[in-house]
Amino acid sequence: DNMITNEIIGVNEELTMNSYGVAKVAYTYKGGLAVKEIRYDDKNNITRASAAGDGIAIIRYEYNNKGYEINRTYYDESDHQINNQSGYQKVVYQYSPADMLTNVEYFDKDQMPAVDETGIHQYIYERDNKCRVIRKAYFDKNNNPVQDNFDQVYMIKYKYDEYGRSVSTAYWKDNTTKMERWNGYHENLTKYNDEGQETEFLYLDQNGNLFKSNSGYSRQVVSYNADASIAERKYFDNNTPIVLSDGAIKSIHCIRYAYDANGRVAYLEYFDGYGNATNASISLGEVFDCHKIEFVYKGSRIIQENCYLVNNAAPSKIIDCLKSDYVNTNGINTGHKNQ
User: Fold this and answer.
1) Are 54 and 85 a contacting pair, CB within 8 Å?
2) Residue 338 clears pLDDT 70, i.e. is over it
3) Contact call for residues 87 and 76 (beta carbons, < 8 A)
4) Which of 10, 35, 128, 175 qualifies as a FRET site for 76, CA 20 to 30 Å off?
5) d(Cα 154, Cα 173) in Å, to the nearest integer?
6) What is the pTM (predicted TM-score) of this model?
7) What is the C-alpha to C-alpha distance for residues 29 and 179, in angstroms, rounded to an integer?
């Protein structure tokens, strides 16, 4: 067996604990596969990750004779079985004869059915003759269909084009009964250009008609620069330009992006349906207006955002991304403080 350790070293060149109370992780490998993981504190004592983590000290991995993981189990500092913070001690994976994942189940330390952090006991995956997932269904501890807590549906079906690209994601109550995702649409379609880039996202109701979201759009259109980076993102209701009316980022029709020499988004700007610069209304706990967001990085990590109003050369707001929530580089979603 081989062992590899990852250590967190502080400025004093000694072990120091991360925010989960772990200073070192030792991995044991057998045949090139990780079979055991042990967490340590800064005194080299085996320790459980804090409540902010998974609450586990030791993890064991088991594999089938083809090298696919079939069991993952959790233990405390004394190597006793223990449930993680989500309430399960064991994860069981099953595969098809073609070695494709078909089933994932969760059990507690008493080997009774348990649920994961999304409230699901069992995931079942159906695949086509090219091994692509075409159906995913969720079940509770009694093997009854259950809604997940992300899309809030019982089943998802997927379709692909002749190149294997995802073109449809649809939401179902069962194999024959359609239903809507939590935000009202039944299906979303993806279109591609000749270079294989995603250029359009459409949202449909159960009858196949365009569905207008609470923000006012039924289509999202994306264009690209010559280097394949995203140039701009626009929102429409059918063919009519709209201004987003709901969400953390609203009062805008278009987002345009600029990049630095490392390919990172250097800044983005918001525009209205006529192509004029406009201030977005942004909600990050407090609500403020902003036309341009300039990103400051440390490596690949965003540490600061400078926010400007239309026609203002000085930032009207500066966000410390290590201490506050911030706007993601896509300009439409928000991120949690980047600690």
Assistant:
1) yes
2) no
3) no
4) 10
5) 5
6) 0.83
7) 45
Alpha-carbon span 4 to 37, nearest angstrom: 10
pLDDT tens digits for range 29-56: 999 999 999 999 999 999 998 865 789 9
**Per-residue pLDDT reduced to its tens digit, 146-190:** 999 999 999 999 999 999 999 999 999 999 999 999 999 999 999
Contact 215, 183 (CB under 8 A): no
- For the segment 312-336, what is each residue's pLDDT rounded down to a tens digit? 999 999 999 999 999 999 999 998 8
Q: Are 272 and 278 in contact (CB under 8 A)?
A: yes
The distance of Cα 175 from the centroid of its chain, to the nearest Å, equals: 26
Predicted confidence band of residue 14 (pLDDT cuts 50, 70, 90) = confident
Instruction: Tell me the chain's radius of gyration from C-alpha atoms.
Output: 24
